Amino acid sequence: MTDSRAFNRLVAQPMSSEETNAMIEALIARNEGVDGWGVDMTMQGLWLDQFLGTGVISQGQYDRILDRGVELIHFEGTATARVGELVRVELASERVEYPGVKFKPWYFSRGFEVVGVSGFEDALTRAGFIDKLYRDWPAEYGANFANPSFEYTPMESGELVIRVRIVLAVFPLVRHTKMNIDWSLDEASMFETQPIWYWVIDLEHEIEVLP
Q1: With left for phi above 0 and alpha for psi between -120 and 50, is residue 9 left, alpha or beta?
Q2: For a Cys staple, 73 with which of 23, 93, 100, 123, CB 3.0–4.6 Å?
Protein backbone atom coordinates (compact mmCIF):
# COMPACT_ATOMS: atom_id res chain seq x y z
CA MET A 1 0.00 0.00 0.00
CA THR A 2 1.72 3.18 -1.19
CA ASP A 3 -1.05 5.73 -0.47
CA SER A 4 0.25 7.30 2.77
CA ARG A 5 -3.07 8.77 3.88
CA ALA A 6 -4.94 5.54 3.32
CA PHE A 7 -2.19 3.63 5.09
CA ASN A 8 -2.29 5.98 8.10
CA ARG A 9 -6.07 5.58 8.37
CA LEU A 10 -5.73 1.81 8.22
CA VAL A 11 -3.04 1.46 10.91
CA ALA A 12 -4.79 3.99 13.16
CA GLN A 13 -7.44 1.33 13.77
CA PRO A 14 -6.89 -1.31 16.48
CA MET A 15 -5.03 -4.30 15.02
CA SER A 16 -4.61 -7.80 16.38
CA SER A 17 -1.13 -9.36 16.47
CA GLU A 18 -2.09 -11.45 13.45
CA GLU A 19 -3.20 -8.37 11.52
CA THR A 20 -0.04 -6.52 12.50
CA ASN A 21 2.14 -9.38 11.30
CA ALA A 22 0.16 -9.59 8.06
CA MET A 23 0.78 -5.87 7.48
CA ILE A 24 4.50 -6.26 8.20
CA GLU A 25 4.68 -9.19 5.78
CA ALA A 26 2.87 -7.19 3.10
CA LEU A 27 5.24 -4.24 3.49
CA ILE A 28 8.32 -6.45 3.37
CA ALA A 29 7.06 -8.24 0.24
CA ARG A 30 6.24 -4.89 -1.38
CA ASN A 31 9.77 -3.59 -0.77
CA GLU A 32 12.03 -6.57 -1.37
CA GLY A 33 14.96 -5.91 -3.67
CA VAL A 34 17.46 -3.05 -3.81
CA ASP A 35 14.83 -0.58 -5.04
CA GLY A 36 12.54 -1.02 -2.05
CA TRP A 37 11.64 1.48 0.66
CA GLY A 38 11.69 4.54 -1.58
CA VAL A 39 10.31 7.96 -0.67
CA ASP A 40 6.77 6.80 -1.45
CA MET A 41 7.06 4.40 1.50
CA THR A 42 8.19 6.93 4.13
CA MET A 43 5.10 6.69 6.35
CA GLN A 44 5.07 2.90 6.12
CA GLY A 45 8.71 2.81 7.20
CA LEU A 46 8.07 5.09 10.15
CA TRP A 47 5.20 2.84 11.23
CA LEU A 48 7.53 -0.18 11.06
CA ASP A 49 10.12 1.68 13.18
CA GLN A 50 7.99 1.29 16.30
CA PHE A 51 8.41 -2.50 16.26
CA LEU A 52 12.22 -2.54 16.13
CA GLY A 53 13.53 -4.64 19.01
CA THR A 54 10.09 -5.37 20.45
CA GLY A 55 9.86 -9.03 19.41
CA VAL A 56 7.07 -8.32 16.94
CA ILE A 57 9.38 -8.65 13.92
CA SER A 58 10.89 -12.12 13.47
CA GLN A 59 14.56 -12.76 12.70
CA GLY A 60 13.61 -13.93 9.23
CA GLN A 61 11.76 -10.69 8.62
CA TYR A 62 14.78 -8.68 9.80
CA ASP A 63 16.91 -10.61 7.31
CA ARG A 64 14.55 -9.79 4.45
CA ILE A 65 14.51 -6.11 5.36
CA LEU A 66 18.23 -5.69 6.03
CA ASP A 67 20.29 -8.13 3.99
CA ARG A 68 19.40 -6.49 0.66
CA GLY A 69 22.52 -4.33 0.80
CA VAL A 70 25.05 -6.94 1.90
CA GLU A 71 26.16 -8.11 -1.55
CA LEU A 72 26.43 -4.52 -2.84
CA ILE A 73 29.42 -3.70 -0.63
CA HIS A 74 32.63 -4.19 -2.60
CA PHE A 75 36.20 -3.10 -3.28
CA GLU A 76 37.06 -0.57 -5.96
CA GLY A 77 40.54 0.43 -7.04
CA THR A 78 43.79 -0.63 -8.67
CA ALA A 79 43.80 -3.98 -10.47
CA THR A 80 47.31 -3.88 -11.98
CA ALA A 81 50.41 -1.97 -10.88
CA ARG A 82 54.18 -2.07 -11.08
CA VAL A 83 56.71 -2.49 -8.31
CA GLY A 84 57.14 0.81 -6.49
CA GLU A 85 53.88 2.21 -7.80
CA LEU A 86 51.30 3.45 -5.30
CA VAL A 87 48.07 1.43 -5.29
CA ARG A 88 44.79 2.60 -3.85
CA VAL A 89 41.59 0.74 -2.97
CA GLU A 90 38.39 1.80 -1.29
CA LEU A 91 35.16 0.34 -0.01
CA ALA A 92 31.97 1.28 -1.80
CA SER A 93 28.30 0.37 -2.12
CA GLU A 94 25.33 1.29 -4.21
CA ARG A 95 22.67 3.18 -2.27
CA VAL A 96 20.03 1.07 -0.54
CA GLU A 97 17.09 2.59 1.32
CA TYR A 98 15.78 1.17 4.58
CA PRO A 99 12.44 1.68 6.35
CA GLY A 100 12.47 4.63 8.72
CA VAL A 101 15.65 5.72 10.49
CA LYS A 102 16.02 3.01 13.10
CA PHE A 103 16.58 0.23 10.56
CA LYS A 104 19.61 1.82 8.93
CA PRO A 105 22.60 -0.44 9.73
CA TRP A 106 25.85 0.71 11.26
CA TYR A 107 29.01 -0.53 9.62
CA PHE A 108 32.19 -1.41 11.48
CA SER A 109 35.62 -2.09 9.99
CA ARG A 110 38.91 -2.75 11.73
CA GLY A 111 40.82 -1.55 8.68
CA PHE A 112 42.64 -3.01 5.70
CA GLU A 113 45.13 -5.86 5.79
CA VAL A 114 47.83 -6.64 3.25
CA VAL A 115 48.07 -10.43 3.28
CA GLY A 116 51.54 -11.60 4.24
CA VAL A 117 52.72 -8.16 5.38
CA SER A 118 52.67 -7.49 9.11
CA GLY A 119 51.83 -4.15 10.61
CA PHE A 120 49.13 -3.04 8.19
CA GLU A 121 46.02 -4.21 10.00
CA ASP A 122 44.38 -1.20 11.61
CA ALA A 123 43.40 -2.07 15.18
CA LEU A 124 41.08 0.93 15.45
CA THR A 125 37.44 0.40 14.67
CA ARG A 126 36.01 2.61 11.94
CA ALA A 127 32.29 2.99 12.31
CA GLY A 128 29.37 4.94 10.92
CA PHE A 129 26.02 4.51 9.26
CA ILE A 130 26.09 2.36 6.13
CA ASP A 131 25.39 5.38 3.91
CA LYS A 132 29.03 6.47 4.38
CA LEU A 133 29.88 3.64 1.97
CA TYR A 134 27.61 4.99 -0.77
CA ARG A 135 29.20 6.32 -3.94
CA ASP A 136 26.85 9.21 -4.69
CA TRP A 137 27.83 11.81 -2.05
CA PRO A 138 28.88 15.13 -3.64
CA ALA A 139 32.58 15.95 -3.27
CA GLU A 140 31.78 19.15 -1.39
CA TYR A 141 30.51 17.06 1.54
CA GLY A 142 34.16 16.57 2.42
CA ALA A 143 36.22 13.89 4.12
CA ASN A 144 33.48 12.80 6.51
CA PHE A 145 31.62 11.32 3.54
CA ALA A 146 34.66 10.00 1.68
CA ASN A 147 34.71 6.24 1.16
CA PRO A 148 37.10 4.30 3.44
CA SER A 149 40.31 3.91 1.47
CA PHE A 150 43.80 2.40 1.73
CA GLU A 151 47.06 3.14 -0.08
CA TYR A 152 50.15 0.95 -0.28
CA THR A 153 53.34 0.74 -2.34
CA PRO A 154 54.30 -2.86 -3.24
CA MET A 155 58.05 -3.50 -3.46
CA GLU A 156 57.86 -7.00 -4.92
CA SER A 157 56.16 -8.41 -7.99
CA GLY A 158 53.43 -11.01 -7.74
CA GLU A 159 49.89 -11.13 -6.46
CA LEU A 160 48.99 -8.57 -3.80
CA VAL A 161 45.92 -9.39 -1.73
CA ILE A 162 44.16 -6.80 0.43
CA ARG A 163 41.49 -7.93 2.89
CA VAL A 164 38.94 -6.21 5.01
CA ARG A 165 36.30 -7.43 7.45
CA ILE A 166 33.09 -5.43 7.77
CA VAL A 167 30.29 -5.93 10.25
CA LEU A 168 26.84 -4.49 9.61
CA ALA A 169 24.61 -4.20 12.66
CA VAL A 170 21.30 -2.74 13.80
CA PHE A 171 21.02 -1.94 17.50
CA PRO A 172 18.09 -1.30 19.80
CA LEU A 173 17.88 2.48 20.09
CA VAL A 174 17.55 2.75 23.83
CA ARG A 175 19.42 4.80 26.39
CA HIS A 176 23.02 3.74 27.05
CA THR A 177 23.26 1.61 23.91
CA LYS A 178 27.00 1.22 23.22
CA MET A 179 27.78 0.55 19.58
CA ASN A 180 31.27 -0.88 20.03
CA ILE A 181 33.06 -4.02 18.87
CA ASP A 182 35.92 -5.97 20.43
CA TRP A 183 37.64 -7.57 17.44
CA SER A 184 39.57 -9.99 19.65
CA LEU A 185 36.37 -11.86 20.55
CA ASP A 186 34.28 -14.25 18.48
CA GLU A 187 31.14 -13.14 16.68
CA ALA A 188 28.79 -14.12 19.48
CA SER A 189 30.63 -11.98 22.04
CA MET A 190 32.24 -9.11 20.15
CA PHE A 191 29.44 -6.53 20.64
CA GLU A 192 29.30 -4.42 23.78
CA THR A 193 25.54 -4.12 23.23
CA GLN A 194 24.00 -7.12 21.47
CA PRO A 195 22.49 -6.02 18.15
CA ILE A 196 19.06 -6.96 16.87
CA TRP A 197 20.62 -8.04 13.58
CA TYR A 198 24.17 -8.29 12.25
CA TRP A 199 26.09 -9.60 9.26
CA VAL A 200 29.84 -10.24 8.91
CA ILE A 201 31.37 -9.58 5.49
CA ASP A 202 34.90 -10.61 4.47
CA LEU A 203 36.16 -9.04 1.26
CA GLU A 204 39.36 -9.51 -0.76
CA HIS A 205 40.86 -7.44 -3.55
CA GLU A 206 43.64 -8.85 -5.73
CA ILE A 207 46.22 -6.68 -7.49
CA GLU A 208 48.67 -7.99 -10.05
CA VAL A 209 52.05 -6.37 -9.37
CA LEU A 210 54.35 -6.40 -12.41
CA PRO A 211 58.15 -5.99 -12.30
Answers
A1: alpha
A2: 93
